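RETRY 2/3 - previous attempt timed out on the joint model. Re-submitting the same 498-residue input unchanged.
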Amino acid sequence: MTDTQIFSGAFAEPVFDAQAVFRTVMDCMARPGTIGTISAVAKPPQPLGAAAGAVALTLCDHDTPVWLTPQLAKSKLPGWLAFHTGATVTAEKQVARFAFVEKGGVVPGFDMFSQGTQEYPDRSTTLVIEVDGFDGGEPLALTGPGIRDEARIAPAGLPEAFVSLAQANRALFPRGIDLILVSGDEVVCLPRTTVIRNGEA
Amino acid sequence: MNAVSTELATYNFAYLDEQTKRMIRRAILKAIAIPGYQVPFASREMPMPYGWGTGGVQVTAAILGPDDVLKVIDQGADDTTNAVSIRAFFKKVANMAVTTKTGEATIIQTRHRIPEEKLTAGQTLVYQVPIPEPLRFLEPRETETRKMHALEEYGLMHVKLYEDIARNGHIATTYAYPVKVEGRYVMDPSPTPKFDNPKMHMSEALQLFGAGREKRIYAVPPYTEVVSLDFEDHPFEIQTFDKPCALCGAENVYLDEVVLDDKGGRMFVCSDTDHCEDRRDHGHCGTMLAYDKETAR
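RETRY 2/3 succeeded.
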């Protein structure tokens, strides 16, 4: 049984849309805490949101096994990813280059994903997590490369233990996972270098 | 039909195919996340020889979009072979807007200089790198240098700088002067003169490094500590020049020596041609320029 949802919803202009999304993500990765806007429109199958879909179309291909939450894995997303990007879905968190968590989905412990090795710290998983928004949540204070003094965000919908997970991840440097948080058409990147603290002013 | 055949005859935007761009883009994101660490990437054959900036060209091709304005410099100059041909390349394969003005550019691809004008947050500096591994001339085995980076074992580099002092009385390394990024990775800043090292420290612009033949990409995010290695009793120093630029009178800039005749005549001029031209346009005048004006009269 074919389903049109799998075959539609990719970028209208694959070359330029992918470039625009990448530049937004690159700028956000270089300036952690900066909220970028993803203008290119992707329509992945529910429950994955548009921005996460755009990131997948921009960065995933046959070289990047993707891990999905159980909710996403049983949606039409694996077929959509396979058709538009060629990426295979893996159940092994350790071999995944990218992992996607839909809004409200359970975020697994960061240490269950590949953190790279001391020799090849780049061989680690990048987690794309959908949050409810970038204000109204628990305030976080960010410092580290890419931030002049201090950046502040208050993402809503992250796991309660997020700060301690992030601090444990930071302590592994140069190993560790990198985070791309998305909400609606907005994106915030938190590379492994960013020091994340509770930001009660 | 005609439209289709025209389509087929053109390159993909920015020359590289989309899969290659994705691969390079993933490497760039990891490079930014691990400042100073050299990310291996599947460097492609480019329509120019290795050593002509194939790494920088691939990085530039992977990041540039239709809204970007590209500037290319070769040893600070906009008008030398490498700079002109790479600018022409991107005009052809991406229909890019190009400029020689540092302030107007969003992407600056550079071979071995950092512009004198302070770079800003909206700009990305792309370096062409010949040998990305700072430890390579000290330890030829990749397996060993990789282990040394993994263990943060950089004693050998300090021995090299110490030997400089033992032989010459001062640190004689003047270009490709090793730096430590964010207190972790020792990095080759590409063969820029050490004069430019302080500009990398806490730069507002994102700095990306591409080594095509050696298949490595690395990065320094904005506002990142970049410290030149030195010793307490032999602190890092940049080059100084006795005279200002002979054309624009600029001081505290990097100067090139130009031999004028076979009788020992020489002049020192700004290596950054855009900076020099801009100063002259604003009425600044060096000794040789004034001389020229008088004789022309």
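Residues 14-30 of chain A form the longest helix (17 residues). Closing ticket.
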